[in-house]
UniProtKB/TrEMBL annotation:
InterPro entries linked to this entry: BchE-like, Cobalamin-bd, DUF4070, Elp3/MiaA/NifB-like_rSAM, Methyltransferase_Class_B, rSAM, rSAM_horseshoe, rSAM_sf
Protein name: Radical SAM superfamily enzyme YgiQ, UPF0313 family
Domain spans labelled Radical SAM core: 170-387
Domain B12-binding, residue spans: 1-144
UniProt organism field: Poseidonocella sedimentorum
Pfam families xrefs: B12-binding, DUF4070, Radical_SAM
Lineage: Bacteria, Pseudomonadati, Pseudomonadota, Alphaproteobacteria, Rhodobacterales
Keywords tagged on the record: Iron, Iron-sulfur, Metal-binding, S-adenosyl-L-methionine
């Protein structure tokens, strides 16, 4: 029997500690979403001859406690943010003489990072390569790299195996996760999704999606995230899934609530909005990116320039779904005026919890190629100190066109401070509540209503929480949209989190501004050399 430990690396334990101390007090759960990537690998592992244990550091703590637990093989995964922690953990197991392999987006972006630690690295989708690796492992013929450009048919991918963490599920995680599709028909310049996964949507059969949702419901999960980069990239398929979810939810004692990522095209399809609301979606994540039309065209976010974005966001949220809008500043067409424009937009579009980003050119995107060609891609390793990079002081690797890097980061800090100001948050979320006019009748899970009571009882525990404003928001939600009060409370908790993080974030960005001032004065930026243009891998179906 080969015993395998699959580790999802944490980021850093300061973050975990913060969640432990504050968020867990309120919801009694440590992590937002279950480790679908590891359960997928567990599902790909034959039952005979192998025993798999999943270890999610965010919920279970440092993985080093398993060093002497007799595992024969350790697999570690994580996004770029987790890479330094993943390497640290990997080194410990490697030094203990246990074979270590790495996979996931973090190592795929920097395959050389695990040199000297990893027995093998996995690049690309794991379905075709993990079974091949296991055979090689048993035969003692492991190759250093397992890579594929194959685009897996999701109908043939085995279901995720949650067995090893099932006992932790309801207590450890706020949300289950079901992968519905891969790929995206759009081709935004800054995004690697369409390059990695293809522009042709690959979808999981509706019946399989329902089985996986039902499995989470049996495990006591109240919420499920559809893990996809664009749930409505294939609208007909999305409607089939939603109709099935409505039927499935009707049979549950308590309805499961859903969330997913999709595009603003939702606002132009009334049938889809109606279905998604009836299917009990509480939140939708939408890449809005910019209020500047020229910037949207520049970055090929064409689907966002067809209508009035404020009106479209309001239309979506009128169905009782909060829009988590992701915004980016620093496109070539952005000037320092963008910060005021984005703030005004977020207030008017009633986006209670936005994501704010400074443009960053990610490996494997068209943007990174263009920045290289134009001599505007900063070689961060040669420009900044290791400490500045590890402390995540450096947010962007682009020389902006319409503003200096000092202006960009100072403007970003000002935007953050205004967005996470309690009075401004209150205006957005009260506006969201008042805007709900098309919400279909909903059953509410009474267990979720407990979130409201937990927030009311514990808000004093959050540093920088404004108790008067929180009280006003919750009373308003209970009076106007009782079925959504738990979601309003959940968003208010996120605002508590943002407000509590703000002093530290301010210090970090102020530190970056000082670094950028020094670099601008000394001309100390080192640009990355021009490299051959990366090509889009062919989309090869497995059927
Ligand atoms: S719509 Fe979203 S997922 Fe699709 S290419 Fe653009 S940013 Fe990427």
């Amino acid at each position: 029997m080969t015993r395998i430990l699959l580790i999802s690396a944490g980021t850093n334990f300061e973050v975990c500690d913060w969640i432990e101390r504050h968020a867990k007090n309120l919801t009694h759960q440590t992590a937002y979403v279950v480790p679908l990537h590891l359960a997928t690998i567990a599902g790909l592992t034959p039952k005979e001859g192998f025993e798999v244990q999943i270890w999610d550091e965010l919920v279970q703590g440092p993985a080093e406690v398993n060093l002497d637990a007799g595992y024969d093989l350790v697999g570690i995964t994580g996004y770029s943010d987790h890479l330094s922690r993943a390497l640290k953990v990997g080194r410990k197991f490697h030094e203990a003489g246990i074979p270590v392999v790495f996979g996931g987006a973090g190592i795929t972006a920097k395959p050389d990072a695990a040199e000297g630690i990893a027995d093998a690295v996995f690049l690309g989708e794991a379905e075709p390569t993990w079974p091949e690796f296991l055979k090689d492992f048993e035969a003692g013929t492991v190759k250093p790299v397992y890579q594929t450009d194959l685009k897996v048919n999701l109908a043939q991918s085995p279901p995720p195996d949650w067995d090893s963490i099932a006992p932790l599920m309801a207590a450890g995680y706020k949300s289950g996760a079901v992968e519905t599709s891969r790929g995206c028909p759009f081709d935004c310049e800054f995004c690697d999704v369409w390059i990695k996964f293809g522009r042709k949507m690959r979808t999981k059969p509706v019946a399989r999606v329902m089985e996986e949702i039902a499995a989470f419901e049996r495990l006591g999960m109240k919420r499920v995230m559809f893990a996809t980069d664009n749930f409505i990239g294939a609208p007909k398929y999305a409607k089939q899934v939603l109709r099935a979810v409505i039927d499935l939810n009707a049979g549950f004692e308590h309805p499961v609530s859903f969330t997913t990522e999709l595009t603003l095209t939702l606002a132009r399809d009334p049938e889809l909005m109606e279905l998604i609301a009836r299917a009990n979606f509480s939140t939708v994540f939408i890449g809005l990116e910019s209020t500047n039309l020229d910037s949207l065209i520049e970055t090929r976010k064409r689907q966002n320039v067809r209508g009035d974005m404020v009106e479209e966001c309001r239309r979506v949220s009128s169905y009782g779904m909060s829009v988590v809008g992701s915004m980016i500043v620093g496109f070539d067409n952005d000037t320092p005026a963008i910060f005021d424009q984005q703030f005004t937009f977020l207030q008017e579009a009633l986006i209670p919890i936005p994501r704010l980003n400074v443009l960053k050119a990610l490996d494997g995107t068209d943007l990174v190629d263009r920045m290289r060609r134009e001599g505007r891609l900063i070689d961060t390793r040669r420009t900044y100190t290791e400490e500045e990079i590890d402390d995540r002081v450096v947010r962007s690797n682009v020389m902006f066109k319409g503003m200096t890097r000092v202006e960009a980061h100072a403007g970003y800090l000002g935007l953050m401070e205004r967005v996470w100001d309690w009075a401004n948050f209150s205006d957005r979320i009260i506006g969201f509540i008042d805007n709900v006019s098309n919400m279909p009748e909903r059953r509410t899970d009474p267990r979720l209503v407990a979130v409201v009571d937990a927030l009311q009882a514990n808000m004093h525990a959050f540093p920088h929480a404004d108790e008067a404003i929180i009280g006003k928001i919750l009373s308003h939600a209970k009076a106007k949209v009782p079925a959504l009060a738990w979601n309003v409370a959940a968003m208010t908790m996120l605002q508590c989190y943002q407000a509590a993080q703000l002093p530290q974030a301010r210090k970090t960005i102020e530190r970056q501004i000082r670094v950028e001032e020094r670099l601008e004065a000394s001309g100390g930026y080192v640009m990355a050399p021009e490299a051959p243009r990366s090509t889009v891998p062919p989309v090869l179906e497995t059927t």
